[in-house]
UniProtKB/TrEMBL annotation:
Keywords: Hydrolase, Metal-binding, Zinc. PANTHER family: BLL3975 PROTEIN (PTHR37326:SF1). Pfam families: AstE_AspA_cat. Its cofactor is Zn(2+). It comes from Paenibacillus pabuli. It comes from the Bacteria. Residues 26-126 form the Succinylglutamate desuccinylase/Aspartoacylase catalytic domain. This is Succinylglutamate desuccinylase/Aspartoacylase catalytic domain-containing protein.
Length: 225
């Protein structure tokens, strides 16, 4: 396994680190983004932990390529806010479109370069979806008809069996969000793209744990671990 650290949007106000983790055997490309919204800190911590674990040899990618951008929106993170404009509405919507923000453009250009089979975008949301179908906390979200649906269902089953408090169980949602990284990846790259949402009201350590476990499940399903 080879881990290298790079800079996305280098020499710009949006510069941010990313990591390439190469297995010793050929396999799929998996992209993980977090911090598209700068105040969703637990998801960023989980992504950075994965990068750190790979660099330290605590986690091994056996095959394929793993791309991790732990903190996409550095400016929003420094300002402790979601980000203005909302970066997750600025990704390309159609094949002929360009991203509406230079940072979204840099992220999507990297994705086009490697063509990920899977794209996991880590987020946090208000509310517990077990209590209300109108909220997004504790959900996996993918586009309607996505080939990711069977895998999402298996992972939700594993997660929920490990979580004793039913209110914290995960649900699957299927909808498009034009301008989001997830929908752009599905429409334009034919990636199996999934948004992972944990609930802000839970302890930060629990949110990091759930994000980490879900990512590991996806990487095992894809055959990287």
């Amino acid at each position: 396994m080879l881990v290298t650290k790079h800079t996305l949007a280098a020499s710009s106000a949006h510069a941010t680190p990313y990591y390439l983790v190469r297995g010793t055997k050929p396999g799929p490309v998996i992209m993980i983004t977090s911090g598209v919204h700068g105040n969703e800190t637990a998801s960023m911590a989980a992504a950075q932990k994965l990068a750190n674990d790979c660099m330290a040899g605590r986690r091994h990618v056996v095959r394929g390529l793993l791309i991790i951008i732990p903190r996409v929106n550095q400016k929003a993170h420094r300002n402790k806010n979601r980000g203005k404009p909302d970066l997750n509405r600025t990704f390309p919507r159609h094949i002929s479109d360009k991203a509406k923000h230079p940072l979204a453009s840099a992220v999507f250009r990297l994705a086009r370069q490697y063509g990920p089979a899977w794209w996991l975008d880590l987020h946090e949301a208000n509310g517990l979806s077990q209590r209300s179908s109108r909220v997004l906390g504790q959900t996996l979200i993918t586009n309607p008809g996505s080939k990711a649906v069977p895998v999402c269902k298996r992972i939700i089953g594993r997660m929920n069996r490990s979580i004793p408090i039913r209110d914290r169980h995960f649900n699957l949602k299927q909808h498009e969000l034009p301008g989001s990284a997830r929908t752009a990846a599905a429409r334009l790259l034919q990636s199996r793209s999934v948004t992972v949402e944990t609930c802000w009201s839970l302890n930060r350590s629990d949110r990091i744990k759930y994000q980490t476990e879900i990512v590991h499940h996806f990487l095992r399903e894809a055959g990287l671990f």
